[in-house]
Amino acid sequence: MMKQNQNNWNPRALESYLRFSYVAGDETLSGDPIFYPAIQFSFEPEKTEEEYLEELNRILDAMLQEERRHSDAAFLSSGVDSSLLAFGIRAKKTFSVAYEEEAFDESALAQKAAEKLGSEHHIVKISPADYFGAVTEAMKNRSQPTGDASYIALFLAAGEASRYTDTICSGEGPDEMFCGYPCYSSYFDDPSEDYWLKVNTIMDVGPVDFPELSAYRGDGFLKMNAFDLSRWMHGNILPNLVAAAKGAGITIRTPYMRRDLMEFALSLPVQYKADLTMGKLLFRKAARRIVGPEIAFREKRGFPVPVRKWMRLEPWKTQIIDALTGESARIILPLIDREQLLQAFYAGGDDTLWTQIWDLFALIRWYEARKGEIR
């Protein structure tokens, strides 16, 4: 258990951030309560795959028809979620991010999709200087800190989109509802009750207690799904969108976050969500009729950011080291052996530690950006 630090932060919330890279517990750093939605699965009576697919198609069609009345712009990556939205609303403007590092760059696939759609496509090229230059401002817009590296890229993309539109739709939701993350497929190789905790843990800082997860009777898959739908979605994903929209001065819509789609996802048996090969199985079949099989069944890549490489480059390496050894770090992270982490990552070459170091750096930047508002 973390001891109370001199900043008077709630120690349980700090533990939660250090473990998950965002505040996933029931209290903020200042001790204010956080309320997460209860997740209740209902699999009876079970239908045929064709019946489930017909129902999902009906919900998605209604969603897309509704969204056409609100937005003609969309974030567009190479994946099925954003592509289904962009194609389904017949987006006139689309936006994607790009990096010089080819292993992280999905812009060519996004450009290809935009050409097929016929949209006016904008590629937001993000350099290390752009990225690190935006960290403080991005963190200032977050009411609670996040170590999610993709948030900074989203913040920059929203800022660029604001030059062309005041409303844009984004594809958050299906990965949580329909189990699209790679960890859901990997679960079948390691079907343990606490698998959800292993794949979500950044730093092991103490015991974890989420009483609501005990309702899933030892089912590690459902525990992971419930955690993502409640804590991850409402503690990190949606707050990232709110903060990015605030910073850009635009509206970011999330069409998938509909009650009828959520209820459908909660009723869908696991075999229609994920297997050893991939996730979002039924969702992909529904999307195929709109985006085609190539996009519908493309491997999930997430929203990759090459920050782990940039962290080793100057002047950002020095910025990180100075932050983790500076006065703010001594105030808010007195019990974390930051120098050992830095030594292992930079001198020892242990790349597995990049998330821990980035989470600490993000927390420090958030604290410095908002400390005048923190009680």
What does this structure look like?
- The model is unreliable at 1-6 (pLDDT under 50).
- The two termini are 22 Å apart.
- Helix 3 (80-88) runs parallel beside helix 12 (281-291).
- The strands form 2 sheets. The protein has a 3-stranded parallel sheet with strand order 1-2-3, with helices on both faces. Strands 4-5 form a two-stranded parallel sheet.
- It is built from 18 helices and 5 strands.
- It has helices at 11-20, 49-67, 80-88, 107-117, 128-140, 150-161, 174-177, 182-186, 195-200, 220-248, 259-267, 281-291, 293-296, 307-310, 316-325, 327-332, 338-347, 354-370; strands at residues 73-75, 93-98, 120-125, 167-169, 251-253.
- It is mostly helical and 375 residues long.
- The chain folds into 2 domains: 49-182 and 220-296, HUPs (Rossmann fold); 311-375, no CATH class.
- The radius of gyration is 21 Å and the shape is globular.
Computed over alpha carbons, the radius of gyration is 21 Å
How many strands, which pairing sense, and closed or not: the largest β-sheet?
3 strands, parallel
Class per helix and strand makeup: mainly alpha
Rounded to the nearest angstrom, the distance between the terminal CA atoms is 22 Å
- Under CATH, the topology of the largest domain can be stated as Rossmann fold
Number of helices: 18
Strand order of the largest sheet: 1-2-3
Strand content: 5-15%
The dominant shape is globular
CATH top-level class of the largest domain: Alpha Beta
The CATH superfamily name of the largest domain is HUPs
Mean pLDDT: 93
